[in-house]
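Ticket #4471: structure output looks truncated?

Reporter: J.K.
Steps to reproduce: submitted the chain below (215 residues) through the standard prediction queue, then opened the result file.
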Amino acid sequence: MRKPRRLWCVGSVLVLCAARASAQAPAVLNSPGAGTATKTTTAAPAPVVVPPPDYVIGPDDVLSIGFWRDKELSADVFVRPDGKISLPLLNDIQAAGLTPEQLRVSVTEAASRVMEDPTVMVMVKQINSRRVFVVGQVAKPGPYPLPGPMSVVQLLSLAGGLLEYADRENILVIRAAKQADGTPISQRVNYGDLMRGKKLQQNLELKPGDTVMVP
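Returned output as attached by the reporter:
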């Protein structure tokens, strides 16, 4: 009769110790990042871009159209290849070729047909329509965005620099703008001179649509 009583006492001690250990253990599953616990995060809003002074809206640009006290009409919009944007209740509005202020006036006029005294804000979120191009003997030829001022040397740096057999003395900048008779405007750039700090006026500021050719 004594053996079962001893076994029962030992079992009670084990159960009691386990209970105390469980009570003292930290609640790991309830701590952030442990087990299956999840943490809710809020995505930061996309920053607003400060466009250059000569900026006009173009295809592929992303704009934010805001209406004061009317969130139903407010939206972030993508400028389509046909140059138009779509807004709730206002349908299609021409955007390409306009400055943000000119578009604000157009949207305000369209909104006046469906609401009284609309207050409209136009902000630029992404500038994708302004591009320059580099071709030829560079590490990474192709189109590059032009969100602000950029020189020939800066573009060549973005393109990974010149390749070994590039003709450094006869780099050609072909302007997007043309002469009155329609012929292209081009200018030769001697990269070697620029690297020696000579004839720095050759380091042209690029305009949208310009192409830099490295033979």
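Triage note (M.O.): checked the attachment and the full token line is present. Residues 169 and 190 are 4 Å apart (CA to CA).
Status: closed, working as intended.
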